[in-house]
Amino acid sequence: SGQRAMVDLNQIVRDTAALRRHDFEKADMRIVLDLAAAPVRLPASELELQQVCLNIINNAYDALQGTKGRPTLTIRTAERQDDATLVFSDNGPGMEQPSQVFEHFYTTKPVGQGTGLGLSISQAIVENHGGRIEAENEPEGGARFTVTLPRAAERTAEAPPPRPVSEPLPAPRRSLPASVLVVDDEPVVLELQMAILDSLGAKAVAAHSGQEAIDLMKKRDFDLIVSDLRMPGEVSGKDLYTWVAAHRRAGTQGFLFVTGDTVGEAAFLNEVKSRCLLKPFSMEEYVSALREAWHGLPTAA
Question: CB-based contacts of 96: which residues, under 8 Å, 6+ apart?
């Protein structure tokens, strides 16, 4: 998930906000985007920055519950010569201990609701990109998270052609009424997939290893299985595919591989002809690969 390319910070914010906008609106809360007029390009892992945005948006969603007036999260982007900033500010109650929010397992949620790992993962990702993240309370109330990322590291990197600006999908197209098993040993990739699936209305279940996936499938079936190809442990993605082919009534129908290594595994992927999505992927690519797999099922309308 850590592969770097030139990305547009504005597009990452749009895509990630679109995942939770529906939930915010249902709870009578708003997400307001105040983005730089021009694309904000920098070398980064798109998937990891989406995870940072999602964690902070999720944090604001929880914090804004019960806020009087019009609970609002505003996300701003700006660029200077050498860096880019991403600022999340809400008009909620603020944080009791801003200096502690990035500590492992720090959480204000009741027991059983979230691990408190989200913000510490976000800090690790930002620092791994050579940036910094700060949390503070606004003088007039509410919390503010400021992410600063360097832009200069790969000034000479070739920028890919810009992806068209994607608006949030209209409600009918957002729907994927499927049960999905997601198998990945990387928490960042797993959490992001779960969030995308949740926004599509899918019933998603996470497995952190191939063995955990097999244990789950012994108890119930899933319409779609989305699995990393290379995973540590006894059961790799290949092993999981072989098990599914032998033990599942529908065989490998609805099986989708997500991998960063198509070269090393080209022979296997060619042999199984399974759908394969290459990391790092954009949200649009992920959603369309899932739809393809879903519409390829005999029972899918």
Answer: 108
Tens-digit pLDDT profile for residues 56-100: 998 899 889 888 889 999 999 999 889 999 999 999 999 888 888
Gap between the Cα atoms of 29 and 64, Å rounded: 8
CATH number at residue 267: 3.40.50.2300
Among 135, 113, 127, 90, which Cα is nearest to 2's? 127
Tell me, letter by letter, the H, E, C secondary structure of the chain. CCCCEEEEHHHHHHHHHHHHHHHHHHCCCEEEEECCCCCCEEEECHHHHHHHHHHHHHHHHHHHCCCCCCCEEEEEEEECCCEEEEEEEECCCCCCCHHHCCCCCCCCCCCCCCCCCHHHHHHHHHHHCCCEEEEEECCCCCEEEEEEEECCCCCCCCCCCCCCCCCCCCHHHHCCCCEEEEECCCHHHHHHHHHHHHHCCCEEEEECCHHHHHHHHHHCCCCEEEEECCCCCCCCHHHHHHHHHHHCCCCCCCEEEEECCCCCCHHHHHHHCCEEEECCCCHHHHHHHHHHHHHCCCCCC
Number of domains the chain is built from: 2
Asked if residue 29 has pLDDT above 90, the reply is: yes
Q: How far apart are the first and last CA of the chain?
A: 33
How many CA atoms are closer than 13 Å to the CA of 77, on its beta-carbon side? 19
Provide the percentage of residues in the chain whose pLDDT is more than 90: 44
pLDDT at residue 242 tops 60:
yes
Report if residue 22 sits inside a domain: yes
Domain of 83 in residue numbering reads as 5-150
Query: Is 15 in the same domain as 133?
Result: yes
Q: Between residues 228 and 270, which one has the greater pLDDT?
A: 228
- In this prediction, residues 4-33 reach a mean pLDDT of 91
